[in-house]
Design goal:
Elements (H helix, E strand, L loop, with lengths): L1 E4 L10 E2 L9 H8 L27 E4 L1 E4 L4 E4 L5 H11 L4 E2 L2 E3 L2 E3 L5 E2 L1 E4 L4 H13 L6 E4 L2 E5 L4 E5 L6 H4 L2 E17 L2 E3 L19 H6 L3 E3 L6 E5 L13 E3 L2 E15 L3 H16 L1
Parallel strand pairs: 2-11
Antiparallel strand pairs: 1-3, 4-5, 5-17, 6-10, 7-8, 9-13, 10-12, 11-19, 12-19, 13-18, 14-17, 14-19, 15-16, 15-18
Bound molecules: 2-acetamido-2-deoxy-beta-D-glucopyranose (3 copies).
């Protein structure tokens, strides 16, 4: 199976949201649902929370295979999600921008290296980055009112890790929006040992072909092994959907960035955020901003 991502026109209504929330209600939903008014004018500033990719963006064709690991929850494995050029580009874009990654309690950020020890860099949105954002939306079939959050590169040096956690919080309907999907993309892992992404509650697929992408062992050891650990193969991605159809999060998606024992791992997070009604609000704001400019 191959998917062809195609260019620009698809992007017209793509909006992007910075992740300032991991665990609790996003401040954005407060803005959207407590105030009848539109997002502030500076929402159209490319450095702000909400951004609109350039309608003139044109992306080179990129095709890649997809392997289905699980239907419920939906989990896909995607080799070659990034091209070697894109990987180099992300690595050098992120390089000067790293800072220690925080953890969140609500919107309150703090550093706790026993839980999360990595540094992260928000990527500036040049054409290559926007084409990756657009590829993520194309993979999902451009769902309405679903936007990509600003992309973050994550760097794990030897000793770095991220303890088990969910990417979802609460119930989708109760929250009025949420982080509906995750693409965990491996950008680089030179001379790496460790650093896999472990899902202890998933059932390991039987096909030996999977051993290229997930950790396998021989004989008895393999029989005792539970869960799935994706190996950080550069360029590849794991995609999963965080919520069940009834709006509750999948408990099976408990996962961790396992300790990097050697080398440096660079990952890329692409989170998609569902915010019902948001496209309409943003469109109105866009028309208003255009009038102001006249
Ligand atoms: C966005 O931020 C960058 C880096 O801080 C700055 O150079 C640029 O001027 C900002 N753009 C706008 C439109 O404010
Ligand atoms: C990309 O693929 C489409 C459809 O196959 C084709 O029409 C288009 O010319 C291709 N663009 C590039 C830049 O190769
Ligand atoms: C955090 O990671 C660094 C490498 O980036 C390592 O030297 C350090 O020992 C780690 N600290 C903890 C508390 O895990």
């Amino acid at each position: 199976m191959a998917i062809s991502t195609s260019p620009a026109s698809l992007l017209q209504y793509t909006l992007l949201i910075i992740p300032t929330y991991i665990f609790i209600l996003s401040p954005l939903s407060t803005i959207l649902f407590s105030a009848p008014s539109l997002p502030p004018a500076n929402s159209l500033d490319p450095n702000n929370t909400l951004v609109l990719p350039s309608p003139s963006l044109s992306c080179p064709n990129h095709t890649y295979p997809i392997h289905l690991l699980s239907r419920s929850p939906l989990i896909l494995y995607i080799p070659s999600f990034l091209t070697p050029n894109e990987r180099d580009h992300i690595t050098s874009l992120a390089n000067p921008l790293y800072a220690q990654s925080p953890i969140y309690a609500g919107t309150q950020a703090s550093i706790d290296m026993s839980i999360r020890n990595s540094s992260r860099a928000q990527l500036p949105r040049d054409d290559i980055v926007q084409c990756i954002e657009s590829r993520a939306l194309a993979l999902q079939g451009w769902p309405v009112d679903t936007y990509v959050e600003r992309l973050w590169a994550q760097r794990y040096e030897a000793g770095g890790h991220y303890s088990h956690h969910f990417d979802w919080a609460g119930e989708l309907s109760a929250r009025g929006g949420g982080r509906v999907s995750t693409l965990m993309v491996y950008v680089a892992c030179e001379g790496c040992e460790g650093g896999g992404t472990e899902f202890p509650r998933l059932e390991k697929p039987k096909g030996a072909e999977w051993c290229e992408y997930i950790e396998c062992a021989d004989g008895e050891e393999e029989e005792e092994r539970t869960g799935v650990t994706f190996r950080p193969v550069a360029g590849s991605a794991v995609y999963w959907e965080n919520f069940k159809p009834d709006g509750r999060g999948w408990e099976e998606l408990w996962h961790a960035g396992m300790p990097v024992r050697k080398g440096t791992k660079i990952g890329l997070n692409i989170w998609s955020w569902y915010q019902p009604g948001f496209r309409e609000i943003f469109d109105k704001r866009l028309v208003e901003a255009e009038k102001e400019e006249l």
